[in-house]
From TrEMBL, chains A, B:
This protein's name: TetR/AcrR family transcriptional regulator
UniProtKB keywords: DNA-binding, Repressor, Transcription, Transcription regulation
Cross-referenced InterPro entries: BetI_C, Homeodomain-like_sf, HTH_TetR, Tet_transcr_reg_TetR-rel_C_sf
Domain of life: Bacteria
DNA-binding region per UniProt: 39-58
Organism: Blastococcus goldschmidtiae
Ranges for domain HTH tetR-type: 16-76
Length: 202, 202
């Protein structure tokens, strides 16, 4: 590696670390106050940067929140992929995802708030969430079709309908859990929903 | 009726009508912008009142939003009660409620947004929503126990668990429906969820 390549690799790592610090700070700020009320000044302060320093990495508030939701979705995808790599079937991996979420209430709160705010058609994340839900339901449907193909899904269960309901159930459970963490066991509720849909030993 | 009683009844009706006009205006304002961003000035303007006139009926923004959510919950309870009075069982009445909601997207949007915002412990509606969810799940559980008692619920179905899941499912479906009204049929999804839990002809 040449000296200049090493320098630029170092600069790249530094930039990536700083962007991640901003995303982490933004999660905290927007989780507490939502997109509209959260301010870039607060994000910059929490990240230990000037506002100009922040704007160097993300030219606007929309860019910051976009990075936050993309990071959140990547995290969720990684949790599922790790669970599947560890031997779980893709539906069991959803239970692991909810268990992961139970350890990250701030992220759950942020997601619940943003997905509600962004139902307004003029919200900067509206189109992102439209695509996000369509993608989430389609991926879940594909997983259910896979489960049907391997005999894991009980015959007669409709993958498309269950994909939509399962997505709704997980969203709704997160809201209730935020209100009453002591009484709501998201993973247990999801297991209870899935059990009658699955064949125990295909 | 004495003249003064008639006068005071007229005044009461006028006050009630004006309060309702404020609640209706508040639904529109807060549905568009949420509790934090919505302003009393906009509510007053839409209701055709001065801000002082509005404050005569509701001394603060919290009082307005409280009236809005109570009105919304009363509406929902009435839709369910009417459906039951019309001969539906209490679970079928939930399908009617979602059909009612499909005709009132603004209200659905308001409810989704407020229930998300109010997960923050310092939100003025937080305690209201904590009680609201506990009450909604308990009422649904009682209805399911009633259905079990009359043989309508399939044996082995747990009323407490289904009450929580059903509440979550309805909440989550409303979010997805707001993003894609063309593809999401809330009532059909609810029917699909309920069907395997019920005995067709008890």
């Amino acid at each position: 590696m040449t000296e200049s390549a090493a320098r630029s690799r170092g600069a790249y790592a530094k930039t990536a670390a700083r962007r991640q610090r901003i995303v982490t700070a933004a999660v905290e700020v927007f989780a507490a106050s939502g997109y509209h009320k959260g301010s870039l000044r607060d994000v910059a302060e929490r990240a230990g940067l000037s506002q100009a320093g922040l704007l160097h990495h993300f030219p606007s508030k929309v860019h910051v929140i976009q990075a936050v939701v993309e990071w959140h979705d990547e995290q969720s995808a990684r949790v599922i992929a790790d669970a599947v790599a560890g031997g779980l079937d893709p539906l069991g991996a959803l239970v692991v995802l909810l268990e992961h979420n139970e350890r990250n209430p701030e992220l759950v709160g942020l997601y619940v708030l943003l997905s509600a705010e962004a139902t307004a058609p003029d919200h900067p994340l509206h189109d992102y969430f439209v695509r996000r839900y369509a993608g989430a339901v389609a991926r879940l449907q594909a997983r259910l079709e896979g489960a049907a193909g391997s005999g894991r899904l009980r015959p007669g269960v409709d993958p498309a309908g269950v994909a939509r309901a399962l997505t709704a159930l997980m969203d709704g459970l997160q809201v209730q859990w935020l209100y009453d963490r002591g009484s709501v066991d998201m993973a247990a509720e999801l297991r209870r929903y899935l059990a009658p849909l699955l064949v125990a030993d295909p």
